[in-house]
Design goal:
Blueprint lengths: L2 H20 L20 H13 L5 H11 L16 H14 L5 H27 L6 H4 L5 H11 L4 H13 L3 E3 L2 E3 L20 E3 L6 H13 L7 H14 L2 E2 L4 E2 L3 E3 H6 L16 H15 L2 H15 L2 H5 L10 H14 L2 H18 L6 H9 L12 H13 L15
Antiparallel strand pairs: 1-2, 3-6, 4-5
């Protein structure tokens, strides 16, 4: 580690500590009631910061317990009104992170949540198959990582990779990738009739095919790849991965600095085979080259495709060193900001070929400098992040997620609590 990198790592550790100190007491953090049980914005996501710090010996376990207790103080939403980032499933992710670091802890609660998660996944899988049987198109919330079965699959893969519930989700993912015919036109099975918001959008007549990790087929690809790497493979698994990769290959764009993929494809673009030119877009986790490059790298690793692995790693390096794409990145969070880019670079570097691993690690301090400029006061930066009214203190957009990415970099090792498994990047 160079002196400059060591200095950046210490600054990252200091800022993460300052954020954690200011988020020490859940009773003193103001959150909208709608965010209380939300993994992205609320109590379960902030608990992850204290869990990771405690596991690393950087903070007290009591803080983590206090946030978990606050998250479960009132009844958690379950069943059809919940999803992987809201309600009982969101709390299940946080509690799993705690139990993995403290073997035997919270076991009774986890047993209850495991049964509920398996039942909810089974109900959703059955509904999805009925939808496919009738020839209808899916909603994004049926399959995506935030609200849908890809998110359930990520949790089940971690809790019980050999379970029937996970295999049912993977079987569904395989079927989702099979083409579907609508009005005489062949569409990918993940084509949705709505816009990216999940609502009808007059700008996208005929709907769209979403590429993203958060709401699109990128997340499905990552789940199938991660399951294969764990040795959980179902019938048609490799063919499904191949269909997604082929779709992305055909829509790959040349930025002049490396490949990129569209956030989504419209019906007009599908029919004509031509993309509407657009300005450079941020290469984020939720949408964009960084998340998709990691998913493609995971798929290549799972199925032993060295050429595709190197292509994915080179695409990620290019995106993270392309001034035009970085200029389009305007915030610091995990979801679509610099912290997320740094964390994906770190996770990809762990698996990268030696020829690209060093280049990925070299770019991380540059990305984190955008979050916390050299010489900045960590307490002042932490205060500004937490008090940001638009992004707040939460996991996906806010201070807790930024601090977790900073911790991972400063430790130079994978997260001890595997908090990022919900993002499908590892």
């Amino acid at each position: 580690m160079t002196a400059q990198t060591a200095q950046t790592a210490q600054a990252a550790l200091d800022l993460a500590g300052a954020v954690a100190d200011q988020l020490a007491d859940p009773g003193r953090v103001s959150l909208p009631e709608a965010h209380r049980q939300h993994l992205a914005h609320g109590l379960p996501g902030i608990a992850l910061l204290h869990l990771e710090r405690a596991a690393a010996g950087l903070g007290p376990w009591q803080r983590a317990h206090d946030w978990l207790a606050a998250a479960s103080r009132e009844a958690l939403t379950g069943g059809p009104d919940s999803h992987p980032f809201y309600g009982a499933p969101a709390f299940a992710h946080a509690l799993t992170c705690a139990a993995d670091c403290l073997p035997g802890a919270y076991q009774r609660a986890l047993d209850t949540l495991d049964r509920q998660m398996a039942a909810d996944a089974s109900r959703r899988v059955d509904a999805a198959h009925r939808r496919i049987d009738t020839g209808r198109l899916p909603a994004l919330a049926e399959f995506d990582a935030i609200r849908g079965l890809t998110g359930y699959g990520a949790h089940l893969l971690r809790r019980d990779p050999d379970s029937c519930a996970l295999r049912a989700v993977l079987d569904y993912c395989v079927r989702l990738t099979q083409p579907i015919t609508q009005d005489g036109e062949t569409l990918p099975g993940w084509w949705t009739p709505t816009g990216p918001s999940g609502r009808m959008d007059e700008r996208l007549p005929g709907g769209h095919a979403n590429s993203g990790m958060a709401h699109g087929v990128g997340g499905v690809l990552a789940l199938l790849a991660l399951a294969a790497r764990h040795g959980t493979i179902v019938a048609g698994h490799d063919e499904a991965v191949g269909r997604i990769l082929s779709w992305l290959d055909h829509r790959q764009e040349d930025t002049g600095r490396g490949p990129a993929w569209p956030y989504w494809v419209t019906r007009t673009e599908l029919r004509t085979g031509r993309r509407v030119p657009s300005a450079p877009r941020r290469p984020s986790w939720c949408y964009g080259t960084a998340g998709l490059a990691r998913a493609r790298q995971l798929a290549a690793l799972a199925f032993g495709d060295t050429r595709r692995r190197l292509d994915a790693e080179h695409a990620l390096v290019a995106a993270l060193t392309n001034p035009a794409q970085l200029e389009a990145t305007t915030d610091n969070g995990l979801c679509h900001g610099f912290a997320g880019l740094a964390h994906i670079a770190a996770r990809a570097a762990e698996d990268a070929h030696p020829s690209t691993a060093g280049r990925l690690r070299d770019v991380i301090p540059v990305l984190l400098a955008a979050v916390h400029p050299p010489g900045a006061d960590p307490v002042h930066t932490a205060t500004a992040l937490i008090q940001d009214e638009e992004r707040g203190p939460g996991l996906l957009d806010g201070a807790a997620g930024i601090a977790l990415a900073l911790l991972a970099f400063s430790a130079a090792e994978p997260p001890l609590s595997a908090w990022d498994s919900c993002l499908l990047v590892a």
